[in-house]
Design brief:
Shape: elongated
Number of helices: 2
Structural class: mainly alpha
Number of strands: 0
Helix content: over 70%
Distance between the termini: 66 Å
Strand content: under 5%
């Protein structure tokens, strides 16, 4: 019988190798931040217009 701790460590190692993190450049990260800011601003404006009427 396989030790449960050993099995869990093997499963965790396998899970970590499946999803490799990808490199995000500074320009792309800045673009993501700008897009998130615009999305939050639009949603906030829409919610303000909806609840203030």
């Amino acid at each position: 019988m396989v030790d449960s701790k050993e099995w869990a460590l093997e499963e965790l190692e396998q899970a970590n190798t499946i999803y490799e993190p990808y490199e995000v450049t500074n320009g792309l990260q800045l673009l993501y931040v700008i897009c998130w800011f615009i999305e939050i601003a639009v949603i906030s404006y829409a919610a303000f217009r909806f609840f203030s009427s």
